[in-house]
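Changelog-adjacent note: as of this version, every example in the card shows the full chain rather than a window. The one below runs 399 residues end to end.
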Amino acid sequence: MIKRLSSVLLVILILFVCISPVAVATGEAKDYSHLKGTTLNVYNWGEYISDGQDGTLDVNKAFEEKYGIKVNYTNYESNENMYNKLKSGGANYDVIIPSDYMIAKLVDENMLAELDFSNIPNYKYILPKYKDLYYDPDNIYSVPYTVGMVGLIYNTTMVEGNPDSWSVLWDERYAGKILMFNNPRDAFGIAQCYLGQSVNTTDIAQWDEAIELLKKQNPLVASYVMDEVYNKMEHGDAALAPYYAGDFLTMYDINPDLAFVYPKEGVNFFVDAMCIPKTAENKEAAELYINFMLEEDVAVANANYVCYASPHELVLESDDYDLKGNEVLYPDESQMPKTQIFENLDYDTQQYMSMLWNELKIEGNSNLDAYVGLSVTLVLVVTYLIYKFIKKKKREAYY
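Full-length structure tokens:
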């Protein structure tokens, strides 16, 4: 009996040894032909994928040609805009690329699908230091796409000296030539770093201090921007703008008068990652797309085009990576700034931040905009007070 069992095990072992190399050599073990003719809805930041310009790889077109799946590709300007679109249910998307704190929020609200990593074998190329992060500690909802930091972009022909502090954004000499983030988390983050606060504080007094600083800056700001920053800085229409390091490199190619610095008070460090909403209608194709984005030639093309730092091992090793070792994206330890990462704020703090942000925007807008902003603010205030009242009643009933 023992000899017979040993013979069976030996046959199984021989079959495993013979068959396994064939399975590995074939590359893609799964057949995705059943997805041909379907549509994939991708929702991403603007200027955030290699699109075929100037002879670069057209990533979406390459995916369509390889798998016969049509890519319906649209853009958003901020995490908050993306969240509001998803929350409203106005459209369904199969792949989204939010930032760390927004991923945490989407997970908390049960809005993301768990990933089937058998469809994403290229996940093995993501560096370990970008796994197990706070927003997805078990690595089940997201795959890192880019990483980076916020810094200060300035025009050397318009700004005196070499600024090294966020304080220059409050310098009256540059009134009307200062740009500011048009989203609350980044704008408050700069004020909080300047004040020496945590960007994740829940202390209302600290948020009040930060909004007062932003209100003091408001008369100096030419405009609050997101993607509009490219045109304004590239054409010399503004002197100063806080923005993402990778985007500075894109602007510098157009305008070599621009310079970049990580302010001494500290900056936001972020990770943007690919996720699949629970409402996705083509989840398997979405996982196939994420895996495609991690193929070496595709990942290198995206890293070269987007100009953000890459979490992809093969990109960092590739001789085709134009930004390999770039000191802006990959500063050495002696040049590494103090960093903070945004976390998902609790409901009370989020509501309070939104209320303060609307107050700020009212101050710099026309009367019509002010009325609209005021209405929004009043709604937020009433919602916040009702929430606190109900919470208090529940607490009283409990005790």
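Structural remarks: The first strand starts at residue 39 and ends at 45.
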